Amino acid sequence: MTYVIAAPCVADFSCAEICPxxxxxxxxxxxxxxxxEQLFIDPGKCINCGACLDVCPxxxxxxxxxxxxxxxxxxxxxxxxxxxxx
Amino acid sequence: xxxxxxxxxxxxxxxxxxLYAAGHLLDNRDFQVEIDFIERLPTPWGLVRSGVAPDHAExxxxxxxxxxxxxxDPRVRFFGNIAVGEHVTTDELAQWYDAVIFAHGAGSHNxxxxxxxxxxxxxxxxxxxxxxxxxxxxxxxxxxxxxPRAVIVGNxxxxxxxxxxxxxxxxxxxQTDIADHALQAxxxxxxxxxxxxxxxxxxxxxxxxxxxxxxxxxxAADIAVxxxxxxxxxxxxxxxAWRAHxxxxxxxxxxxxxxxxxxxxIVFHFLATPVALRGNGRVKQVDYVTNSALRSGGTVSYKAxxxxxxxxxxxxxxxxxxRGSPLAGLPFxxxxxxxxxxxxxxxxxxxALSGIYVTGWIKRGCRGIIGSNRWCAxxxxxxxxxxxxxGRLAAGALQRDELxxxxxxxxxxxxxxxxxxxxxxxxxxxxxxxxxxxxxxxRTDALLSAAxxxxxxxxxxxxxxxAGTVS
Lengths: 86, 471
Prior knowledge:
heterodimer; A: about 90 residues; alpha+beta; two-stranded antiparallel ribbon; 3 helices; about 25% helix; globular; B: about 475 residues; alpha/beta; 7-stranded mixed β-sheet; 6-stranded parallel β-sheet; 16 helices
């Protein structure tokens, strides 16, 4: 299981700052952040600690298994972001 | 300034840009800070209240989960209903405080520069967005929704918000905090088709994918595409290609849905540029040309066609981007619509102005989403604290209590945090019965009544000093 960022994300990168394993991208100073639609969590790095969950100001982060139905596809989107940018 | 004295900062504008700046200042470990928000409206939160669409309740959670804590901090004060240029000047703020951060955002929109832009029925998207969000400046406006077609020029996220609001079932909108006057207008709407017209093709359209995806929800309008639904083929950079591919797949799924029948529809009209808006006093049609995309490697340019076509419409909304507007006493670059600055330090003719900063849209232009302002504000506040550390800030002339007294004399109808809480409570209570998050008060007098109580207001008015007697 992993945590997943879904559609409400507003790119407040508090999650990326607090993540102990730097699993969240894009975050400053990555220039990609400037035009980011949202941030993503790398399922290969996430240790499921939940630190990001608490600091997200819009509650955009869910545990994979508790994603609302309409945002289930964000599991794949979070994974794909890191495949594409690897 | 003694070593123990706090840095006293005024922040003009209590929207995300200013609130993130305040958050960074409060979080700094080196210096004590005291922050006063100077806000033109009786309400805080800026575009979270007056910009974010009413059906995006999840994004508004940022108020209760973050910004409210900032404004409640004992080191922070809120002075609402205080307008720079009316109750105070920029020079006064600069003298009174150790530093001033201007975070007043965008007060205007990009014009198209074509014939007919001033016809009745042609509006800036900003005006319509503020109207449906209950901004007191636009509460009195009347939008003609009697014609079956509305055209939105531009296809960014704001255009998508407007298209959604114009086509969503009114019963669903009635569960949100949309302004009551907008709800009433939409109940009477005869709009059947909303055309979202953009110069570029789908691959390079301005909207974000999560926003486009929202048209997938139950009750959403039918979606059609004019100007070609072609797979992306220009992006060489993998991330851009991935986003373009996702966008194409979303759009393909939306257009492939069975028609609802009888419902409203949204037409994404790509590769079209308006050349004139025509009508006799009131807009009747949009004249446009079709563009062709010229691809070369990873870049695309667009060539306007010569054949002018016509689309009848009764409402035209210009959504080609917001734009900063000048504020008296503050430098302004009319070309780019921002305050000239270096990393947030405002630049005058002879370099950086001491103690004057900008953050948010007025600093970097109208780009990015709510959280983009957090990085932006980090840069500005770092510069401010650096300047303070280096002794480059001239000490403000007034103490904390003096500032409060003076601002209250300048406008006895000042809305402080507790007054705002009274407004907030009144709005939330009004929403309770109707199953809505809140019912917004949209007139300044109603907001001030809720803030101060009706009797307090009358007393304050009669005690108001005449101009010239206040220092």
